[in-house]
């Protein structure tokens, strides 16, 4: 055992030295020492993180947006099967970030999780490229073998994405010290540039990468994303000594499970009349554990039972530390309450992504049945998503620099309007986008049935623009909402909830497509979404989605009126 002098010397080494500017948030450098401001963090580190984000978006979206075309034209899948496969894979890509967030917070830390995720993602992209390269190397190769290799690579990529998505934004935010006013302002700029870079990477991938895939073949078109992500990995690792790292505080999901188990075990225990008797650590002990205390609230009282101190708890406390699966502190209980309050809103937001999932599936299939020639150029149907990305890129600075200040003067709110109002407006936009797609499909189908010239693919532009406006409002709004409402110790996991919303919406899209195919393709009928859209009724599908979107908006408004924010508690 080390002597007291050795312990004091070790503690002294970790204390900020007089005359040196250390961070005030407890962040460390790569060697585990307190982080120096002039050597770590800030924009010197974030430029590499943003570079990694750009490469990741360029690579990931370069595969995602044209995947349905590859499945239908190369692997000869039906429209419904291709749309379901894309929706399911996309949903998995947004489900794995929750796993990545838990691993990062509990075991590896954000940096190591991102490095491992990048490596797995590169390997997955190489597998996908191999599936397209095999027909060039082997004269006889069966389609099932190609499909197996492709989907093995795609789901490896999904796990790689799980390590990157939840950590890139939060790791970038870690590079700014909230205790320093100038760095705190820079953090806001980082979020703006993060979203801007994300959309720039998406625009380039949906135009340049899709063009390469359509004109130079899928082997090259799928190999380039793997090379780009490799560059992103190099960019991330190159600045490892410039990063600031946060200490791991254990799994927040474990803390939530402990409250549920403790409350269930004490379901027959009566709550005290004085809630001040509930178990809570002293203020100084909470600070030592790195957890900010949350005051008790009066709703969802069942979970308060987890903090009731029983006679058996008092007896056990005399001989050993309290069992966290039997007795939880009030702050821990309140963390769970915050999550439970957000669940109805989370469920309503998920349908927004059921609508946006059509961008990569039924919107592309609709475009493939239209006239794709504009002047003398052939426009790949998947490239129409560029309208969505350009809309978001254009409106982000306008929203931040023009709308927010004007709305702030009218409402007195720092952000102009509330996050929930912003999200609701985005839900309305995606319902309008579905209605616009239905009207375009009606026009296209009538022209085809009358033997007229095929409808120009540019008629799809308004529906993509409306989705872009919805992305600006709902996607950024929900990230802001989940982050601002999250308990201090659960910021990363609550950020991952936004990605889980996208996963739920994509899985729901796949389920709806399956149900529509089952219900409409009966009795020899081709159904609403057959391989030849001229024989179907894709317009009815879009009208159904628009109607469901309106019902979802009503449900969301009802949940908003019942929601109790942290500020109101």
TrEMBL record:
SUPFAM superfamilies xref list: MFS general substrate transporter
UniProt entry tagged with the keyword Transmembrane helix: yes
Entry protein name: Major facilitator superfamily (MFS) profile domain-containing protein
Transmembrane segments: 48-68, 88-108, 115-136, 148-168, 189-212, 218-239, 338-359, 379-399, 420-440, 460-483, 495-521, 541-563
Membrane topology designation: Multi-pass membrane protein
Superkingdom of the source species: Eukaryota
Compartments where located: Membrane
Keywords (A to Z) from UniProt: Membrane, Transmembrane, Transmembrane helix
Record family assignment: Belongs to the major facilitator superfamily. Proton-dependent oligopeptide transporter (POT/PTR) (TC 2.A.17) family.
Lineage: Eukaryota, Viridiplantae, Streptophyta, Embryophyta, Tracheophyta
Gene3D superfamilies linked to this entry: MFS general substrate transporter like domains
